[in-house]
Amino acid sequence: MKQYEGRWLGDFTIHSTASGYSETFPVEQRYWWEEGQLHGISVSDTNNGLQTAKSLTFIQDDKLQSEVITGETTERFFGFLRDGGIVWISADMKRANDYQMAEHFAIEEGRPVLLTEGFDSYVYSEGLAHLVYRGRLFKQDSKSAGD
Predict the structure, then answer these.
(1) The predicted structure's pLDDT at residue 74
(2) Mean pLDDT on 78-91
(3) Is 101 among the domain residues?
(4) CATH number at residue 30
């Protein structure tokens, strides 16, 4: 979990093959440790304007858990270690098959990068479809971030 700490900048792409919708937008995420929990804040500049979210990641009852707060909405997720990364599923079992996000770290261009892939389901006029998420965020040098 220590790998998350710091400032990350990059892009996310959301795509739906069903509707042809596609959007790529810049994202900044910051993570820091406080009282044994990983705190995060994310800012995205989407077609719908600036979107912000806060997160809190912790271990409770031997389970990796995260809470993501967007406006008035709080979603809870369980994390599972897989292939050197973390797979997140919704704690709401009704959504567990409809949403999944996987994160892992790599080195690209000599810099740490946080790679995110996942999907979310939605209903549209033709039936059920998936939004596919892909993110590539590069860790910023703490000297250039003003830390």
Answers:
(1) 96
(2) 94
(3) yes
(4) 2.40.128.20
Measured between alpha carbons, how far is 49 from 133 in angstroms, rounded to an integer?
A: 18
Residue 20 lies inside a defined structural domain of this protein? yes
Confidence of residue 71 (pLDDT cuts 50, 70, 90): very high
* Type of residue at 135: G
Question: Per the structure block, which two tokens stand in for 131?
Answer: 């939004």
What is the rounded radius of gyration, in angstroms, for the C-alpha atoms of the chain? 16
Nearest-angstrom CA–CA distance, 93 and 95: 5
52 occurs within a structural domain: yes
Q: CA-to-CA distance for 103 and 55, rounded, in angstroms?
A: 15
Number of compact structural domains in the chain: 1
45-55 per-position pLDDT tens digit: 999 899 999 99
DSSP state of 108: E
pLDDT of residue 124 exceeding 90, the answer is no
Enter the tokens of residue 8: 């990350």
Q: For residues 45 and 64, is the Cβ–Cβ distance under 8 A?
A: no
- Identify the domain containing residue 81 by its residue range: 2-139
Measured CA to CA, the distance from residue 104 to residue 83 in angstroms comes to 8
Does residue 25 fall inside a structural domain?
Answer: yes
> In the prediction, which pLDDT does 147 show?
43
